[in-house]
Specification:
It is a multi-pass membrane protein. It comes from Raineyella antarctica. GO terms for molecular function: transmembrane transporter activity. By secondary structure, the protein is mostly helical. It has a single domain (41-320), classed as ABC transporter involved in vitamin B12 uptake, BtuC, CATH 1.10.3470. Helix content is 74%, strand content 2%. It is built from 14 helices and four strands. The strands form two sheets. Strands 1-4 form a two-stranded antiparallel sheet. The protein has a two-stranded antiparallel sheet with strand order 2-3. The longest helix has 27 residues, at 216-242.
Length: 325
């Protein structure tokens, strides 16, 4: 009776397994290496207060990026999320300070403003046949303009319920709790719902998804509406941190949200993206900024570093795609 032995082709060495893990989790490996390097450079980097500070700094971008993940999975893009976040916060503050509505209602209104703005973008893209880049670029301009119109270019006082979004709850910062909640919702939608599976199908091949009977246009409207809703939540958290609605809040945040998704492994070609990867991407950006601030590196050079990280992430994604095909 012969004993079957594993052939070299079927063996998986520890080094090969480690290499495959690094290939599939490049953002996580990069985050761990970066944290180790910053700890060596400045031991106070890994102190509890600083770690909490990093989480708070990452929260708004992460929430925006979770909504952006839905869009990128469908091979789309949403350039309006920063402006929509500012608009939601400003309308909420206007309803409280000028109209006198209850605080809890103004918080809900801020979320609904984001949802409505996203749905309008989705309708233009899905039914108006606008390219996602153009449709959301137009919404970015409209939302920012409306923010300035509502505020007359000046900050507005926000309701206590909105301010609570930037405070603490049982010694835990609310922005971090909101980031965790948004992450769970993003994961659930992508992995446990028909809508999530439809997103991946549309991002993989839109025409094949349509021919298989998926309501592609309705799904796209829902995707951009979700992105807007997450932007509204991010706007509430940002306004809570500032204790006011600022007319220029959220400027360029859409670029950080896209970067977080790409760094986390989402492909701009569509069909791939994970909530966990997006979270790691957002934290990685926050760690870079935090570490460079501690090291007293100029903010100008920080932008250079962030740009290089994004370029490396996209290059790594291309390399990984070639290795897996």
């Amino acid at each position: 009776m012969s004993t079957a032995t594993a052939t070299p082709a079927t063996r998986t060495s520890p080094g090969r397994r480690l290499g495959q893990f690094a290939l599939n989790n490049g953002a996580l490996v990069g985050l761990l290496v970066l944290c180790l390097a910053l700890f060596i450079a400045t031991p106070r980097f890994l102190t509890i207060p600083n770690i909490i500070n990093i989480g708070i700094q990452a929260a708004v971008v992460a929430i925006l990026a979770f909504g952006m993940t839905f869009v990128i999975v469908t091979a789309g893009i949403d350039l309006s999320v920063g402006s929509v976040a500012a608009l939601g916060a400003m309308v909420s503050a206007f309803m409280f300070s000028d109209i006198g509505l209850p605080g809890w209602l103004t918080l809900l209104i801020g979320l609904l403003v984001g949802l409505a703005a996203g749905a309008v973008s989705g309708l233009g893209i899905a039914y108006g046949k606008l390219p996602a880049f153009i449709g959301t670029l137009a919404m970015m301009s409209v939302a920012r303009g409306l923010t300035l119109v509502v505020s007359d270019g000046t900050p507005l006082k926000t309701a206590p319920s909105v301010n609570a979004m930037g405070g603490d709850l049982a010694f835990l910062p609310v922005p971090i709790l909101m980031m965790a909640l948004a992450g769970v919702v993003c994961w659930f939608v992508l992995n446990r719902t028909i809508l999530g599976r439809s997103m991946y199908a549309i991002g993989g091949n839109t025409e094949a998804a349509r021919l298989s009977g998926l309501p592609v246009r309705k799904v796209l409207v829902a995707v951009y509406a979700l992105s807007g809703l997450f932007a509204g939540l991010a706007g509430m958290v940002l306004a809570g941190r500032l204790s006011s609605a600022q007319p220029q809040a959220g400027v360029s945040y859409e670029l950080d949200a896209i970067a977080a998704c790409v760094i986390g492994g989402a492909s701009l070609a569509g069909g791939s993206g994970r909530a966990s990867g997006t979270l790691i991407g957002a934290i990685l950006l926050a760690v870079i900024r935090n570490g460079l601030n501690i090291l007293n590196v100029s903010s100008f050079w920080q932008q250079v570093v962030i740009g290089l990280v994004i370029a490396l992430a996209v290059g790594f994604d291309v390399f990984r795609a070639k290795k897996t095909h």
